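Hey team,

Sharing the Adenine DNA glycosylase run so nobody has to redo it. Sequence (346 residues) first:
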Amino acid sequence: MNFSKNVINWYSDYKRDLPWRRTKNPYYIWLSEIILQQTQVKQGLPYYEDFVNTFPTIFDLAKSDEQNVLKLWQGLGYYSRARNLHYTAKYVANELNGKFPNTYSEIIKLKGVGDYTASAIASIAFGEATAVVDGNVYRVLSRFFGIDTPINSTKGIKEFKALATELIDKKHPAEFNQAIMEFGAQQCKPKNPYCIVCPLQSACVAFQKNKISELPVKLKKTKVRNRYFNYLVIIDKFKNIIVEQRKGKGIWQNLYQFPLIETEKSLSIEAFEEVAEKHRLLKNVDYDLSLYNETDVVHKLSHQHLHTKFWIISTDQTYKNAISIKELKAYPVPALIHDFISKFKF
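Structure output:
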């Protein structure tokens, strides 16, 4: 069986009509690939369209300030992608005069670009025969060839990259790379793949040996850490509110949030009152405290679960750095806080 030919033929019949597939512009392809890291197409598509409309060229993206970029990214998560996107746009616009690097070896040097993204851009935009290996490709190759090497191991990463490189259609690298990724996303899905009508079925090792559900193999993830966040939603008599920018290298760097108290466990109102009165913004201040959500809102990240409470604090105290509630929606915030802002009746 000619694996590459069958996958490309399937792609020509069943590929989704997506905007980044209608262009060879490396800026648009790069933009789509960064957005689609850790993000499904149906979620990423509207963000892609918003970015293209707001920043039609890499110069437009480079000229924007980071806060606007983060605001447009809001809800996609993994915000380091947005910061790296902005950094790279400024580098290409200012240092390379807007000319995007056109080889894998140069593209991979860009901030926020790894092997997969560099391979995708180099092959799709410039026709270089560099094989992509993402979650979809791992799944297709693992099942078809019956490979049980863990895909997130050093050995597995090398093995699957070498195999994909061997299989790529050297004359049509863009079509092959997009085809095998689309095949994994649409046909050889993680659960309930369409094996009965699969053009690779007759030679698929996993199908023949009834190992579809067992492949690909992945090493167990790092143990999830539970954290307990308590946000202080402080509202003064003038309907002003306090937000603070997150600093450091932790989650949500440079996004805005309400003043935060992190505790070792979820607290009752009585227990939290003792903690809150010691906070720098509430010392020697008269206020009324109420709990917005009695059940913790659990926000799941890759290696940590955030158990969150929003504490509503009304006070006659005025704060120098408070902002009008009307301004709140202009600030880039984590999805967790955005959901609260959307639901809470200020």
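The mean pLDDT is 96.

Ping me if you want the raw files.
A.
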